[in-house]
Amino acid sequence: MTQASDIELVGVTKRFADLVAVDAIDLTIPAGTYCCLLGPSGCGKTTILRMIAGHEEPTEGVIRIGGDNVVGLPPVRRGTAMMFQSYALFPHMTVLDNVAYNLRMRGVGKAERRERARAMLDKVQLGPLALRMPAQLSGGQQQRVALARAIITNPRVLLLDEPLSALDEYLRLQMRSELRRLQRELGITFVHVTHTQLEAIAVADVVVVMDQGHIEQAAAPEVIYATPQSAYVARFMGGHNVLSGRLAQIAGGLAAIENDRGGRFELAMEEGLAARGDPVNVSIRRDRVALENGAAAAGINRVSGTVDAIEYQGAFVKVTMRIAGDEEFVAYLRDDQFLKRPVAIGDIATASWQRDDLHLLRADLGRVALDAGRPYQNP
Amino acid sequence: MQRTRSGRRPWTFYALAAFFTVYVLFLYGPMSAIYILSFQGPNGGLTFPLNGVSLTWFYALFEQQRTGDIAGSFARSIALALMVLVLTVVISVMAGLAFRRRFFGATFVFYMAIASLIMPGLLISLGIGLMFQFFGLRPGWYTSALGAHLSWTLPFGLLIMFAVFSRFDRSYEEAARDLGASDWKILWTIVLPILLPGMIAVALFGFTLSYDEFPRTSIAVGARNTLPLEIWNMTTNVTSPALFAIGTVTTALSFLVIAIALGSIALIQRRRTRRLPGGAAKLEAGVARP
Asked: N or C: which end of chain A has fewer CB within 10 A?
């Protein structure tokens, strides 16, 4: 039986020629955790996975698995197993021989390794396909073969590189819960790389949101989704509107933020976090917004704009407004609420929210510029 | 076939069809005449009409003749082509593996190797002959001619391996390493089996390019001729249909080699996409096992 192991990255940097793919990252993934590395392509998440696996070596820093520094060790001696994005099933071997490959390399006899590989295939419900070639399997079957081939090594850590990206929507949802169930059964540490937010928050115990070689936030999925630390995380995870301004006044634990487009937002904030005039980013969840027809008189915690698009989503209605500064502002309204006070495209409307729902993006405090642009505005 | 709105073909169709017909006539017409005439009766001559049908001239080929040593030169050509085949495959695969790492001067080395394709073969042959003479070595078909042939087949082999490796997914090797394979095991159990169809293509090129090589062999061959050189000699002094029989035999052999190569590639591809013969029975046995 394998035991779960902590993974620790300390000051890990990876440079390719003059490109810094991963920049001085510190991260601890506790034993037996399902961890998702999440970020847009090129953010360094796959590089981190490959460094844990031993397919890349860090330029600087230490990687520990179960307390041992594994930098420089070949993959087998790290106790990791990796499932590749393309699955990398050996095209010239049967499914059975693919799964038995690790045992063959360990010198297990032919009869025994076939026996064990067959048992493993039965576990993933692929027993009847043992003598097929990989090219004869569907995408979902290939993925389960890749999974069986990795698990038969009894790893302490299973590394999954975009495991669901090649599957269609239906299979993706099915395999997602199957992966989660497998992780609970095996009790080992899973590290799963993905660029899909919903996939990450659905399966993970810990979500690590990355941007350009940095970790923006690492926390439980509900923490990441409800209380993002920065405009980047809020936008990348989706479900939030980001508003920015400058601190106008702070007193009695209450801060007022104003922008040059006439917006004034108030929220609870401890003193000493920012000085008057400092740039501040805040966010409001799209589903915590109320919408009214017509422009509002100047007020606190409200924005007005033109309705740009209305999409019916079943459980809710997505209303997209264009507000001052040509920014997008999105409200998710419960369908019954929307029908009570319907707005139409082209209408002027006002969105408002409770003060307690406005969320301070703390990690943005002290960053040089006001947040501008919307690189990862979510649909 | 694309047609104009009125349903008539454009004039370019007829022009190209005429060109293709002429091409086919030029390629297969004279060759067919030679194949047919090689079955000329014992009293027949070098031209139509056929004076009976026989295999006389094929038997004549394999007897030592005062006109030429067909059997001997044929054996030498086959032996040489096989040596070239083995060396071309081994060296091309190793070179292909080496070029995957961008070593210092890789581009320069590559162009140096490829340049051989555009050098005049006769001059290479002359140079090799002169070099052997300079060093006091005796040129021969298995020394100087072997080198001359490799100068022709290796650039082709290298280009094919480049094409093969460009489609080779490196994650196969990483997956194997992940599963505990050493570099040596990765090469033998993963890389070479996956490359096998490409290696057969290289082998086919190596064999056929060597088997009918003429200019590079002409001066470097030494005392004993290869088959193409022997045929060339015979055209000047043989006046029987045996000459045509040579053409028929060598063509048949070329087709045989090509068929073997393509057949084995097709077989490998089939094995990778279809169930192995007997697989179904073994499968059932496997499932039924308690």
From this structure: N
The CATH number given to whatever domain includes residue A23 is 3.40.50.300
Q: What is the pLDDT of residues B62-116, one digit of tens each?
A: 665 656 677 788 888 889 999 999 999 999 999 999 988 888 888 898 888 888 8
Mutate to test the interface with A, among B179, B189, B196, B271 (most CBs of A within 10 A): B179
Q: What is the CATH number of the domain that holds B147?
A: 1.10.3720.10
Q: Is B102 on the interface with A (CB under 8 A)?
A: no
On whether both A209 and A299 belong to a single domain, the answer is no
Q: Which of A2, A1, A7 is nearest to A206 (CA)?
A: A7
Looking at the fold, whether A79 and A120 belong to one and the same domain comes out as yes
Each residue of B211-231: b (16+ CB within 10 Å) or e?
Answer: bbbebbbbbbbbeebbbbbbb
Contacts of A136 in chain B (CB under 8 A): 273-275
CA distance B90 to chain A (A): 21
Residue A187, pLDDT > 60, answer yes
- Of A83, A84, A152, whose CA–CA distance to A117 is shortest? A152
Measure the CA–CA gap between B58 and B248, rounded to whole angstroms.
Answer: 9
Residue A376 located in a structural domain: no
pLDDT in tens, A122-157: 988 888 999 999 988 988 899 999 999 999 999 999
Burial class (CB in 10 A: 0-12, 13-18, 19+), B179: buried
State the nearest Cα–Cα gap between B290 and chain A, in angstroms: 11
Q: Which tokens go with A289?
A: 């917004």
Domain boundary among A189, A224, A259: A224
- Chain A CA closest to residue B275: A132
User: Is the peptide bond preceding residue B49 cis, with omega within 30 degrees of 0?
Assistant: yes
DSSP secondary structure letter of residue A70: -
